[in-house]
């Protein structure tokens, strides 16, 4: 709600949505004549934007107007404007970002959280009398408030410090955004993460490092994942790869290129083939030259690939020296130009061009030499545009639970664009014996794995269809993707049979854990209910991981002793019951993930079960912006829903009812934008957006659309 107040008068106590939307104090008894009012344009402002505090119904006989921070005229003055002299005098409350206009309005540029609060306008007449003091409250929303959200998890990156070095110096490959639930990490020399190129590995649980086959004695790994390389030599230049493994079995890979500090880019001490990106970072729509240095004089042919691998499906071009001819490959996009010195020009660069390129050179003695380059593409993604490119891999069970004998689709969302292959596994661990099926993108073919039952079918979009579901099919399924830039990504989904209760109806004696409730809000409690506990149990072990590691042990319960021994991962919020169930109180976002229960039988056999805990933060109040509140028939209008919460579902309301979409209405992929084109009279009314997640939902204040005839 937006209103203003004029002194003197009795104040209303109505203050709706304070700190949830830009709010105003309002006067109770306004006279019939037009009164001075103030409004925010736009009504809701986000950090970094500009806002205009617009004044309406300015009196004609005024001489001076002044803006203050706060609600008292003794508050710090932003500035004072005198109409007769057309002079503005700035006050101590001026930050350098405010502009006063002759119509009384105040513009604030690049707003920050420090700008939150009341702003007061004092107007004086020619008799030096105060005509009115009008105030308004400005609330600045965090920059998290967007129409679209990137992945909530920051991307693993590496920075070379310094960016280039001279021979004999030292360089730190600084790691940023390590996973919070890190289990171990591995450093490799080159772009391929294979054992023979392993420099060192670091195990977080023991805070220890183990050198690998490629370790030279000059590498040191720190506990933050960074790698120090001392006494750098020419052979040390090139790519380095970091692979991280988390407790939830997710792998993440990042690369960095080490450069030698040279005065001329074409001057190298050795004849090693190198590729230089000019510029090093290219903007979308621009051109980039992949400049080749030290191309061997005796080459027969060279080949360019949009990949770190040699595969025909990723071949861009092949150049033959004898024929002086270029043959374009499957990955040629009509934007690449090949030069006879080996270099390649890419014009009209897109986001899909980011990643690894490989140059392969065939010499006269038929020896092959390879060089790699990583292309960095910068893109600007506005807040209110769709940008699903950074969304994380996820799986949805459709339907969420099924009856025995039916079929279920494990629907995959946000597959990598540069996908090479994908693998499905039964269980939470991606190991060969549990592999159901793999799919190779290049050949569009699938190969069954050791765990394939004949009832699984994988589709080209990565989704897995499981037919004639049996009770033994319940549990976790794991999807692992591999991209052309050698990045692995892992996602899990749990398959459930449709039953009214967990423990009372199971016909099998399989150990199962059910979270109650399935989705938990931050600050609430969750019970990890254990079903079908064997009678001959000696001991229960709970781990905040899928591995049996002491550092992730929450608790150990002995039935004989009827006692609990707490582990290193115990937070003080867990309780273990005699039936093996685990209660977690006052849950936080850090409690999200996979848990393992390990049972020790009297015959000393071990049995394990896993469960995934989903923790959600209740959503914040959203708000709606509209391109214009008053539009003409046959024109167009766009509504945008802004929310601070990632991963929410969005629903549009019209006059407090669910909006019925017509052929004139278009929703963006995430539904955060509603476009109407062309507008009709019946579109006039109040529009709201409702955001929700599995534990909460909230609706915005209504925005009223008026429609006028042409």
Automatic annotation (TrEMBL):
Q: Which family does it belong to?
A: Belongs to the immunoglobulin superfamily. CEA family.
Under the cellular component aspect of Gene Ontology, which terms does the record hold? cell surface; plasma membrane
**UniProt cross-references to PANTHER family, sorted A to Z:** CARCINOEMBRYONIC ANTIGEN-RELATED CELL ADHESION MOLECULE 1 (PTHR44427:SF1), CARCINOEMBRYONIC ANTIGEN-RELATED CELL ADHESION MOLECULE 19 (PTHR44427)
A GO MF annotation of the entry reads:
protein tyrosine kinase binding
Boundaries of every Ig-like domain copy: 622-706
Keyword list, A-Z = Glycoprotein, Immunoglobulin domain, Signal
* Protein name as catalogued: Carcinoembryonic antigen-related cell adhesion molecule 5-like
**Does the entry feature the keyword Glycoprotein, yes or no?**
yes
- What biological processes does GO assign it? regulation of immune system process; signal transduction
Give start-end of the signal peptide: 1-34
């Amino acid at each position: 709600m937006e209103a203003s107040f004029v002194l003197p008068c009795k104040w209303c106590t109505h203050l709706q949505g304070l700190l949830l939307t830009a709010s105003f104090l309002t006067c109770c008894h306004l006279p019939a004549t037009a009164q001075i009012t103030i409004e925010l344009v736009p009504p809701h402002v986000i950090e970094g934007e500009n806002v205009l505090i617009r004044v309406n119904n300015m009196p004609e006989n005024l001489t001076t107007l002044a803006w203050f921070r706060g609600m008292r005229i003794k508050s710090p003055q932003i500035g004072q404007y005198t109409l007769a002299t057309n002079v503005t005098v700035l006050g101590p409350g001026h930050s350098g970002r405010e502009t006063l206009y002759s119509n009384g309005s105040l513009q604030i540029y690049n707003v920050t959280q420090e700008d939150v609060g009341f702003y007061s306008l004092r107007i004086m007449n020619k008799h030096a009398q105060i005509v009115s003091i009008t105030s308004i409250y400005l609330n600045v929303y965090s920059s998290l408030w967007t129409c679209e959200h990137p992945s909530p998890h920051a991307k693993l990156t590496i920075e070379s410090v310094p960016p280039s070095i001279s021979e004999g110096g030292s360089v730190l490959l600084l790691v940023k955004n390590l996973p919070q639930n890190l289990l171990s990490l591995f450093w490799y020399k080159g772009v391929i993460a294979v054992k023979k190129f392993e420099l060192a590995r670091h195990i977080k649980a023991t805070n220890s490092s183990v050198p690998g086959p490629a370790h030279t004695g000059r590498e040191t790994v720190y506990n933050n994942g960074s790698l120090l390389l001392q006494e750098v030599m020419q052979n040390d230049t090139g790519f380095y790869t970091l692979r991280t493994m988390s407790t939830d079995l997710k792998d993440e890979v990042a690369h960095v290129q080490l450069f030698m500090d040279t005065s001329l880019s074409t001057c190298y001490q050795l004849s090693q083939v190198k590729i230089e990106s000019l510029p090093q970072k290219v903007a979308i729509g621009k051109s980039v030259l992949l400049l080749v240095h030290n191309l061997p004089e005796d080459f027969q042919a060279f080949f360019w690939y949009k990949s770190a691998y040699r595969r025909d499906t990723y071949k861009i071009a092949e150049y033959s020296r004898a024929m002086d001819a270029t043959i374009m490959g499957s990955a040629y996009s009509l934007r690449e130009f090949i030069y006879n010195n080996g270099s390649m020009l890419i014009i009209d660069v897109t986001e899909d061009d980011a990643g690894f390129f490989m140059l392969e050179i065939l010499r006269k003695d038929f020896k092959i030499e390879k060089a790699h380059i990583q292309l960095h593409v910068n893109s600007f993604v506005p807040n209110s545009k769709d940008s699903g490119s950074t969304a994380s891999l996820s799986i949805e069970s459709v339907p969420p639970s099924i009856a025995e004998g039916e079929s279920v689709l494990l629907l995959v969302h946000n597959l990598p664009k540069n996908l090479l292959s994908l693998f499905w596994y039964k269980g939470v661990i991606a190991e060969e014996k549990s592999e159901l099926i793999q799919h190779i993108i290049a050949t569009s073919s699938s190969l069954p794995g050791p765990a394939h039952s004949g009832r699984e079918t994988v589709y080209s979009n990565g989704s897995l269809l499981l037919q004639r579901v049996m009770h033994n099919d319940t549990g976790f399924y794991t999807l692992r993707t591999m991209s052309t830039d050698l990045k692995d990504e892992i996602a899990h989904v749990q398959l459930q049979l449709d039953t009214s209760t967990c423990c009372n109806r199971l016909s099998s004696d399989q150990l199962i854990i059910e979270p109650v409730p399935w989705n938990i809000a931050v600050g609430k409690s969750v019970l990890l209910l254990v079903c079908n506990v064997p009678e001959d149990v000696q001991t229960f072990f709970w781990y905040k991981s899928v591995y049996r590691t002491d550092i992730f042990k929450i608790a150990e319960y002995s039935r004989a002793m009827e006692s609990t021994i707490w582990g290193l991962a115990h937070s003080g919020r867990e309780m273990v019951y005699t039936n093996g169930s685990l209660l977690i109180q006052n849950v936080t976002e850090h409690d999200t993930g996979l848990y393992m229960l390990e049972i020790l039988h009297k015959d000393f056999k071990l049995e394990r079960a896993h469960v995934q805990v989903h923790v959600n933060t209740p959503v914040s109040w959203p708000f709606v912006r509209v391109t214009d509140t008053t539009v003409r028939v046959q024109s167009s209008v766009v509504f945008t829903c802004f929310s601070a919460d990632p991963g929410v579902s969005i629903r549009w309301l019209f006059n407090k009812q669910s909006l019925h979409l017509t052929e004139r209405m278009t929703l963006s992929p995430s539904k955060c934008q509603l476009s109407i084109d062309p507008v009709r009279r019946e579109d006039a009314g109040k529009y709201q957006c409702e955001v929700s997640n599995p534990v909460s939902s909230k609706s915005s204040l209504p925005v009223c659309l008026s429609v006028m005839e042409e």
